[in-house]
């Protein structure tokens, strides 16, 4: 037998149609598949938790005896309930009892019976004097396996399942396979000595059936290192492949950039100047630039992007800036036209509904270049070949890069030869994620905010305090400021209690009858959204009721108040992005997070936003709570999945994996 031997050919499985479909759904076709199907958790069945006498915050693992069973209809239409009363399996002189309860699972009446011994796992709660566990995991313990491996008497693995695949048969199968497959059949992937004393085979065996709970973490780290090294090798190969392209240096002498910076009413921050210098160095090399620019909300990424673009167009080539929304593209267009036209740089806007600016007359070029290249700013329309880069596309700036997929970026880059890339994100990315997933990019970080920004105060309040929040907004409006009121939904929903922007708009218009109230959301067409945003930007609308369509790129310095309703429905990073729309002017700003009074856990989760404006600290917490998907978006699709990584705690492993991958690539 080898790892490629099909499970059925190994003679260890006899599958009917339902079983076979279940195993195929889990991806378990070969012996190797089964050995790499790891548990989702482990239970220490050498000793069980103390029998609960009341509700508990954590789940417990218990060995119990069923003393009573009953089925009945509970409250609510079709709410059928099955209950099993259990007591400690070893007998209970104190008379402790526990109720196991399942809803709408009537078949359990044929599965569980008085006298059965079970191992159960679930969280106890107290209700009306009874201690209950709803929908616990359970296994029936047969007499002949009361202390026998692999189901009892040790650290027992609990595997992910599918319909037709039972926990005990799967556990037995993997236990037998591990006994039959020798270590030599499980090849090492890392170079000799790279994984320390723990071999790959030993780590795999340990993650299934450890001798103690303490053995699990070293085994996880051994396999996490392998995963990270695989990922880093792929990223380094991408990097090497991209840098095989040879181009003439893309940076001009910098006269346009110098004049642009001299015309600004403020000096760039130290972080901005550092990023500009790094980009300039990249563009002077004979290989394309691939750089990620990370900057917290309000850190001034657009100015850095403008510097990169001016360096390229001074050389006579074209540059593109791609934004995820029409609102953001139009805002960039206004800024770049204001900056570029006095320098003789033609700026064009290209979106799904607008194409303008391309026929603007060239101003007298004071920068010294014979004929600067053009700048085209747009949305997804840039993918479709309509841009017609007459001087050749040399630089693609991708704003809010996590909003775009790999295929979309490649469609843009295919419109030129050896196109340099500057990807920008206002979502601070934790250090481990940057190392793990952006190893094919150089990284610049803007960790300073420009001077002249007012203080921003964040507070958590209850949705029942809306009247007081409205009174506070009125005070700010009377002082000449503007406000955002943000909702998670566009329309009211029967399934969700969260407020909807369209329903709330009329209420706010009535509340603020002496002021002008506008509404913007994602279902409006581009012209409608643009008209509303233009009026808000020019002060013709005082209060903007909105959904998250305003999350990215809207810059109205006079807006200093934001109410975010049902903030418990947003991730921390998204809330941080939203509140970044205020605090952009000189006035003190206020972000009020309104949460459902029943969501006490959410209030605790959101408290970090009261404590800090440090986007990297917030991103770390968001990663811990929600996982890497929120942070990474779609940018790094196509990379290997990570099953063992602790993406907050494994920074050193990523660094070690990077060195291993560099060595492997160097050695072929």
Descriptive notes:
This protein has 668 residues and is an alpha/beta fold. It has three domains: 44-154, OB fold (Dihydrolipoamide Acetyltransferase, E2P), CATH 2.40.50; 255-446, Rossmann fold; 456-630, P-loop containing nucleotide triphosphate hydrolases (Rossmann fold), CATH 3.40.50.300. It has 19 helices and 23 strands. The protein has an eight-stranded mixed sheet with strand order 13-12-14-11-15-16-10-17, sandwiched between helices. Helix 10 links the parallel strand 15 and strand 16. The two termini are 30 Å apart.
CATH superfamily of the largest domain: P-loop containing nucleotide triphosphate hydrolases
- What is the C-level CATH assignment of the largest domain? Alpha Beta
Radius of gyration: 30 Å
Quickly count the helices.
Answer: 19
* Class per helix and strand makeup: alpha/beta
CATH architecture level-2 label of the largest domain: 3-Layer(aba) Sandwich
């Amino acid at each position: 037998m080898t790892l490629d031997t099909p499970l059925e050919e190994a003679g260890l499985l006899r599958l009917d149609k339902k079983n076979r479909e279940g195993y195929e759904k889990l991806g378990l076709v070969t012996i190797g598949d089964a050995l790499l199907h790891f548990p989702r958790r482990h239970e220490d069945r050498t000793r069980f938790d103390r029998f609960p006498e009341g509700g508990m915050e954590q789940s417990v693992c218990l060995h119990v005896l069923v003393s009573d069973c009953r089925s009945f209809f509970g409250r609510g239409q079709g709410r059928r309930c099955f209950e099993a009363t259990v007591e400690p399996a070893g007998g209970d002189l104190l008379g402790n009892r526990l109720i196991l309860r399942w809803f709408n699972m009537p078949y359990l009446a044929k599965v569980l019976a008085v006298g059965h011994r079970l191992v159960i796992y679930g969280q106890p709660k107290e209700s009306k004097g009874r201690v209950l566990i709803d929908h616990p995991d359970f296994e029936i313990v047969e007499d002949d396996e009361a202390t026998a491996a692999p189901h009892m008497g040790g650290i027992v693995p609990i595997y992910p399942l599918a319909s037709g695949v039972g926990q005990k048969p799967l556990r037995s199968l993997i236990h037998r396979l591990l006994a039959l497959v020798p270590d030599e059949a499980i090849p090492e992937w890392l170079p000799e000595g790279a994984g320390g004393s723990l071999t790959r085979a030993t780590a795999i065996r340990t993650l299934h059936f450890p001798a103690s709970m303490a053995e699990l973490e070293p085994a996880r780290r051994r396999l996490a290192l392998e995963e990270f090294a695989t990922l880093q090798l792929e990223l380094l190969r991408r990097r090497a492949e991209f840098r095989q392209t040879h181009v003439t240096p893309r940076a001009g002498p910098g006269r346009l950039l110098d004049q642009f910076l001299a015309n600004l009413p403020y000096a760039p921050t130290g972080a901005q100047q550092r990023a500009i210098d790094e980009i300039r160095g990249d563009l002077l090399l004979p290989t394309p630039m691939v750089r990620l620019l990370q900057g917290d909300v309000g850190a001034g990424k657009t100015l850095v992007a403008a510097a990169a673009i001016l360096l390229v167009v001074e050389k006579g080539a074209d540059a593109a800036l791609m934004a995820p929304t029409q609102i953001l593209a139009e805002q960039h267009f206004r800024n770049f036209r204001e900056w570029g036209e006095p320098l003789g740089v033609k700026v064009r806007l290209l979106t799904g509904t607008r194409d303008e600016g391309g026929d603007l007359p060239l101003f007298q070029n004071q920068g010294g270049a014979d004929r600067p290249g053009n700048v085209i700013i747009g949305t997804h329309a840039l993918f479709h070949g309509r841009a017609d880069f007459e001087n050749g596309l040399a630089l693609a700036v991708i704003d809010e890069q996590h909003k775009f997929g790999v295929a979309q970026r490649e469609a843009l880059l295919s419109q030129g030869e050896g196109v340099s890339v500057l990807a920008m994100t206002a979502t601070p990315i934790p250090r481990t994620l940057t190392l793990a997933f952006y190893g094919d990019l150089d990284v610049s970080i803007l960790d300073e905010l420009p001077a002249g920004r007012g203080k921003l105060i964040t507070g958590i309040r209850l949705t029942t305090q809306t009247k007081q929040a409205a009174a506070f907004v009125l005070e700010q409006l009377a002082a000449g400021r503007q406000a955002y009121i943000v909702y998670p939904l566009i329309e009211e929903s029967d399934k969700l209690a969260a407020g909807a922007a369209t329903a709330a708009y009329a209420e706010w218009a009535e509340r603020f009858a002496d002021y002008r109230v506008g509404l913007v959301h994602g279902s409006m067409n581009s012209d409608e959204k643009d008209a509303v945003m233009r009026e808000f930007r020019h002060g013709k609308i005082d209060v903007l009721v909105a959904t998250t369509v305003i999350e990215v790129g809207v810059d109205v310095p006079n807006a200093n108040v934001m109410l975010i309703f049902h903030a418990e429905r947003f991730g921390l990073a998204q809330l941080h992005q939203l509140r970044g729309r205020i605090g952009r002017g000189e006035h003190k700003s206020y972000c009020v997070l309104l949460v459902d009074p029943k969501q006490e856990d959410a209030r605790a989760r959101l408290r970090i936003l009261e404590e800090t404006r440090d986007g990297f600290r917030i991103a770390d917490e968001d990663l811990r709570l929600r996982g890497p998907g929120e942070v990474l978006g779609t940018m790094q699709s196509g990379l290997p999945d990570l099953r063992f990584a602790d993406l907050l705690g494994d920074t050193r492993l990523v660094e070690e994996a990077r060195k291993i991958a560099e060595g492997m690539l160097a050695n072929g």
